[in-house]
Amino acid sequence: MTATGEDFARRAGDDFVQLGATRDGLDPYLDQARERGMRAVLVETPAYLRWRRMLGRRPFDLQVAVERPQDEAAVTAALAGAGVAPRLVLTGFERYVYAGFAVARAVGSAPWPAVGEAFRPPDKREQREALRRAGAAVAQPRFAVLTPDGPPDDLGYPQVVKPSDGGGGLGVVLVDDPEQRSYAADLIRGMRNYGGGEFGSVLAEEYVKGPELSVQGVAHGGRPHLLSVCEKLTTLEEVPDAPGLSGFREVGHLARHGDSADEGLRELTSRCLDAVGYREGPFHVDVIQGEAGPVFVEMGFRLSGGGLVGLVERATGDSWAQAVFAVHLDGRPPALSPVRERAVGQIAAVSRQELDAGAELAAQGHDVEVQRAAPLPDTEPLSAADREVLASDLARHTGSVGRVVVAGDNCAHVQSLLRPIVSPRLRG
């Protein structure tokens, strides 16, 4: 039997529910729930909960296994069955962001209705269409939705082909001609999203060359409050089992205070939130800095992964997760620290040599921290069924042996220290 919002309201408690585990080893929402004395509940697939225990991640107060966390009704029923009375429901992983907001609405908990009574998070295709419908003066690449027998379009090459509802770079491919595009689209259609299931659709968009940026913030009353601006270091890598195709992987980030965002980036962010009707909660917006200004790529309605939560706090002095809890539970805007002349960058190291290079920078007197990751557990104890469910996670969220974190007066200085460490892996 599925519980209704009224059922939950009658036994309202002080439970925090996180739908989907973070993949970077950081649990900022868990920390905030503990600070407020809330019971912290994690909902995930049984396979990922087993993998999470193998990784040695901190346990939540209650962990609820759901075979399909992307299914709002399944999650709502599981929470009711476990006696969970949510006061706040937030998403920890991109795959489940769509269900996360639907669950909050179904059980009548924050962030609903302040997020927008009719808000549902749009996927990448829907974001582009919302911007176009709103007539917002936001530059974005020309794009098309690909179908197996769809008509040709007039997009130029090179193009980026990607699923409309993926995450973490899963299935994002650079192509140079129609043959490669068809090959990439078929490849994506044959893949499975995190936790299993097909992708919603496949998009192609014209590739825009330029520095990649993202802004991290919290919306309150429909107004964006920017915590930070990040520059990305990315690389092209061969797509497994697809010779000739290259995909993207983020190698590192450089973060600075959100007050350093220029007017064009601020205006783009505000127009994006308006176009999709997002009024309250965490967000990040990815752009490419083109010759004529920022070009929209996509936006997310959660905290960023890849260790960015920790990076943002080191660069700004502000806790992104704390700001989110304050907005949702206290109804107050983020209390952000004054701008500081400081930048902090990090790279995800894939070899001992890269970690050693970071240690050498520290020995030279630079402000450097080398974070060594615990060895990855042997996947042999996982069943074949678990490995199938976790296939995308194992492909996109393993391989790092640690992080090198560098602080300095500005992004140019920090990048001059980090870039040589990973230069063999960088494109451009």
Q: Strand fraction band?
A: 25-35%
The main pleated sheet reads as:
12 strands, antiparallel
How many beta-strand segments?
16
- The chain-level structural class is alpha+beta
Verbal overview:
InterPro entries: ATP-dep_AA_Ligase, ATP-grasp, ATP-grasp_PylC-type. Pfam families: ATP-grasp_3. Keywords: ATP-binding, Ligase, Nucleotide-binding. With 428 residues, the chain is an alpha+beta fold. The protein is built from 14 helices and 16 strands. Helix 4 packs across helix 5 and helix 11 crosses helix 14. The longest helix is centred in the middle third of the chain and has 14 residues. The N terminus is likely disordered.
Keywords:
428 residues, alpha+beta, four-stranded parallel β-sheet, 26% strand, ATP-grasp, ligase, ATP-dep_AA_Ligase, ATP-grasp domain-containing protein, ATP-grasp_PylC-type
